[in-house]
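Encode chain A's predicted structure.
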Amino acid sequence: MSLLEDILTHNQDFVEKKKYENYQSSKFPNKHVLILSCMDTRLVELLPKAMNIANGDAKILKTAGALVSHPFGSIMRSILVGVYELEVDEICVVGHHDCGMASVKAAQTLEKIKQRGIRQETLDTLQYSGVDFNRFFKSFDRVEDSVKHSVSTIRNHPLMPVTVPVHGLVMDPNTGKLDLIVDGYQKYRASV
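Encoded structure for chain A:
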């Protein structure tokens, strides 16, 4: 059985037995918080448990490295929609130690891309069209600096209201321990 067949078989049982009833909530987060975290598999259940977040409590965005790499990209758009349309009043950027994004190197990633069947001509065309692969696959050396960068991008966005605190945290992916990097309340108080 393929992965997709397994998912669909499970889903049919899930719906028929009304298991979804345990997870019903509104589209508005109970705790009025949006969490931007890494897509690391270790955080799927650990992060909400470590932050006391239950189903329906938060909007959770996942992206490689918890990075906001472009101020007008889809991650920032989702954050702004959360604030203006989905009753988000606070934001937490949560990076983690031992992040795979810290070891990403553009040259190695491009080699893997070619190994998976993408032709060099395609890469050349993209580069000629202005894609800077070193910037596109940019990693970071210190997760704390990465979190500060994402917090700053969100906090200083021209469409972000000053009344929304933006916090920065780093998690230990083994224990769930959170270290505070940026206290968004301090920045919020200073701007009000």
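The longest helix spans residues 3-16.
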